[in-house]
Every structure is written in structure tokens, then in C-alpha cells.
């Protein structure tokens, strides 16, 4: 089975907008154009279609086929290129529960459009991504609901004896693949057990998605990186073939994956599919992005790193990170209102930083990163004072690119940010551990952001200015 090496996602972390967007955010028509663009120009083979947290067009297959017939007659949807929906998890997102049912209904309808367009069609959509997974029952219910109540309608008979499949046409495919997305560290550390239980006797291969942004937001940069590496080890050891996906963004906090420095490729060697988020696609020149995609497609996944870092280290570092968040939460939430919205998204229901009843709330990871980077205190620094000398040696062995990533982070540090973020001990420890050269242009830009916040004037423009310099919004 061919598994794409790159998945384009709709994460709104870009500063610059692409040429095909009509305004400074994506609308439904732009999302269709983007899917065509990443397939036809960038050579990316998969587009996530994100129903979770945002409103997107569920006629995407029909519109792609009717708008770009020449291209898609050569590149078959479902074979050479893929649309992979990310659906709500009804166990967590109760208000969006029925949207899951509506989204699943688009799968056989999309197959009907493909059947009309292609002589010998394959299902254009045949798997979905389920977010915030914590147990196998969440996957089981969705799998059975689709099989029995969506595709299963074909076998029903009306009171007059009419078979539904004969009347409306068959509902195909009969079953779909489920891609679990694990978004917090406890879930990631038991992902192998969840996958084993769900796959047992049903699948001999699966795709499994690990988040990097939300675990970092909720537990810190180093704990999120270590947890992902441990999860990949455990998935590799399963009896079935697992094709991991990892959700990485440009800054180290969110995975360190940009077209010029794909640290994630080195850190997660067993990953099959890496996400190309909006900043990756639009904040670098076309040739750089295209070359990075081609290079990635030519590479091959290998075995995961075997790391020795203990869970105690993860717990201690994440505990220190979480202790600090209340001191900055109100500031981040207030300034976060000025971060440009590149895609129209709802609040992501989630973990420590979101809205499951915790007293402390944060915006999405992209907005959090944008605020912290724009004042010159990158979030990777939060809680690093808990990294002892022995921890440091172990962590550097476990994360080979850590020093390089932290040099990037510290080059974006502005001492003036300590007037807002009272974490002097983190800066002191970071200076002890890592060498770096400050960026003078960035130092001046972040000082202007701090001054704009102080005066409550021009904050959005200042955030955009710093984002252009670092080439990602958040």
C-alpha cells in the first residue's frame, strides 16, 4: 500500500497568504483551490480536510473533479492523491457529534461522483482521522456506525419491499479505515495498547497520527518531543504494520519542520507521513518548498530511535512548565486576540490549554506561539530551569537536534520580554546550556511589539512584522 510521505493540512500558522486567496484568510472556495494547488504544484499527495473545529465544504470531491477535470483525469483521487477528512470525536465534542454523521455520509456520495468521472473508480475517500483519541471504543463506534448505518443502508428494505441500494444506489465503500490521532501525553504513551485493541482481528496495518502542538502547549516542548519518540517506539513494536503520521509545524515548539530545516525528519525516523502546515507552504519561496517536498518524498522511513529518558524526566519538566502557565495565561489570551486569523476556526475543545473545565485556559498552540515569539520569549524556554545536568545529557542523547533547535529558539529571545514573562531562572539555565547568537533585526522588531502592547496600538501589525522575520506566525 502506498502511503503519502507528506500531508498538507489546514493549520493557520502562515504569515503570508497564497496568491489564490481573495483576502487575508481562507474561505471555502480558497480551501478547494488550496487542495488543487498542493496536488498540482507542490507535488503533495494528501490533503487533510478538517471538519473538526471549522466549517469546510463537504462537496470537495465533486468540486475538484468538476473544476479541474484535466488534472484529476491524470491524477486519480483516491489513488494518486487523497482527501482525508478529520472528523469530530463525539466522545469529546458533544456539540459536534451529529456533524460526524453528516461527514461520514459524504464518503459514499463522493464515491458516486468518482464513479461518474472515472471509468474504473477507487473510493476517493476511504479513511478518516479521529482526534483526541484516548480509548479503542471511540474508534470502534465510528467504524461500526459507518459500516452498519452509513454503508449499511444499502441492505435495508422499505415497507413496500424496495431495497435501498437498488433505489438510491449502493453506499460504498462498505468499510473505512480509521486513523486515531493522539493529542496528549498520557494518550500517546498508551497509543500502542489502543491501536492493538482496535486492530485485533480486523486490520493487519494501520495509520496512526501523533500530535506535536497540543502536547507541547499542555506539557512543554521537551516533554512533547520525548513522548512522541517513546510512542513511535511502542507503535513500531506492535504485531501489525503501523504507518505513523506526525503533526509538525515550523517552530521547534510545534515540531521543527520547515522547508529549510526539517529537524523532524531526523528526530522521528520511523514516521511515514509528515504534515506540511500553512507556514511550510506559504512563508517560503516556491522553489524552496517544492524542493523540500521532493526531497522528503525521495526519503524512506526507518526504525525509531530507542531512547532511555525516563518518564520521571518528562513528568518533572512538564510539571515545571505547567506551574508557570498561570503567570502568563491572562497576558497570552489578551494579546492573542490580535494574532491574525488565517482560517476561520472554532475554539478547539481539548486539554490543559482549552475548555474541559480547567480554570486556566490558553488559546490554540499557534496563537500561543505567535504571542510568545512576538515578544521575544519563545515558549520552548518555559520550564527549562528544571533540566538538570544529568537530564541534559540524557535528553541530548534522546533528541539529537536539541542544541540546533535551541540555538534557533534563543536567537529569537529578547531580554526586554522579562518585564512581561517573569521566568528569569529559565533564561539563566538556557544560557548555561546552549550557545546562541541573537538576531539584531528580531531584537528590534520584538521591542516594537512590546511597545505596541504597552501603548495598545498597532499590535497586529507588530505581530505580523515579527512573523515575517521568523517565517511563521505561530
From TrEMBL:
Its cofactor is Mg(2+). Homotetramer. Keywords: Carbon dioxide fixation, Lyase, Magnesium. HAMAP family: PEPcase_type2. It catalyses: oxaloacetate + phosphate = phosphoenolpyruvate + hydrogencarbonate. This is Phosphoenolpyruvate carboxylase. Catalyzes the irreversible beta-carboxylation of phosphoenolpyruvate (PEP) to form oxaloacetate (OAA), a four-carbon dicarboxylic acid source for the tricarboxylic acid cycle. It is an enzyme of class 4 (lyase). Belongs to the PEPCase type 2 family. InterPro entries: PEP_COase_arc-type, Pyrv/PenolPyrv_kinase-like_dom. It holds the Pfam family PEPcase_2. GO terms for molecular function: phosphoenolpyruvate carboxylase activity.
